[in-house]
Design brief:
Length: 274
């Protein structure tokens, strides 16, 4: 288990299991009731957005759940209305969409790193509540989460990425520069909350200094603020086979050899996902 947490892997899985059962019920409700749900994940680099998104998406039918993580805008997108490129990714009936960063890039990284002007950032903050009210008035259930992490813990996670070849791809020159702007990001976040924490689209802040606890906290909150998602479970007739179970058989091509796993009891899966 990597990262600092008060939970053992076993205790984390024990606490997560009933929540994923509830999440499965909620996903069925979204699909069968034709609901449209958006969850926005925002926060500093290394906070834990990716791990939180994985926790949700891996426990939902991928036909009804999409993850949106957009790259930098193209020159054509830069010439559009700022919100335009996000519209095509909004959910249809029966879908849950998870935004790994969102239109709030303009209030955070773009503002702090100088990728937009201060006027553009303030214009965005004026427009965002109206944009979100249109979404909510049209029936979309919109949830906005900001994942909080202290700079000491953020530095630990940056160093883990630097040392781990499997995570080094997450580092960029922007990460190096952003380390000197921790307080600037705090100021930008507070201005964002002041302007966009509304009755119809409120923000929820979650402490992610301990990522496993943060993930559990976020999922518990999301399930609690959803409407009643309980639906009757239909019986599925499951008659017995009329013959002995068959084995795979091959004529043209055989399967490739299995991977040499050694002692299967020694596997240790990563616990602390960013």
């Amino acid at each position: 288990m990597s990262g600092k947490t008060v939970l053992s892997r076993e205790r984390y899985e024990e606490l997560l299991k009933p929540l994923t059962r509830e999440l499965s019920d909620a996903a069925r409700w979204i699909q069968e009731a034709g609901q449209r749900v958006v969850i926005v994940f925002e926060g500093r680099d290394t906070a834990g957005k990716g791990g939180s998104i994985d926790m949700i998406s891996q426990n939902i039918n991928p036909r009804h759940c999409r993850v949106v993580a957009l790259p930098s805008p193209t020159p054509r997108e830069q010439g559009q209305w700022y919100f335009q490129r996000y519209l095509q990714h909004l959910p249809s009936r029966g879908e849950l969409v998870l935004f790994d960063r969102s239109w709030y890039n303009r209030a955070g990284v773009e503002r702090v790193m100088g990728f937009c002007t201060q006027k553009q950032a303030e214009d965005f903050l004026q427009a965002a509540p109206d944009f979100e009210k249109h979404l909510v008035d049209d029936g979309i259930l919109l949830f906005k989460y900001w994942l909080c992490v202290d700079q000491e813990r953020q530095e630990e996670r940056f160093h883990n990425r630097l040392k781990n070849p499997r995570r080094r791809w997450k580092l960029s020159p922007i990460d190096v520069e952003s380390r000197t702007k921790y307080e600037d990001y705090t100021i930008a976040r507070e201005r964002m909350l002041e302007a966009t924490h509304t009755a119809w689209a409120p923000w929820t802040l979650v402490d992610f200094n301990d990522q496993p606890v943060g993930r559990l906290t976020l999922l518990r909150h999301f399930l609690d603020v959803l409407p009643d998602t309980r639906l009757p479970v239909a019986d599925i007739p499951w008659p017995p086979l009329k013959h002995a179970p068959l084995k795979e058989r091959y004529g043209v091509i055989d399967p490739i050899p299995g991977y040499p796993v050694g002692d299967p009891g020694s596997a240790d899966l990563a616990h602390d996902k960013e």
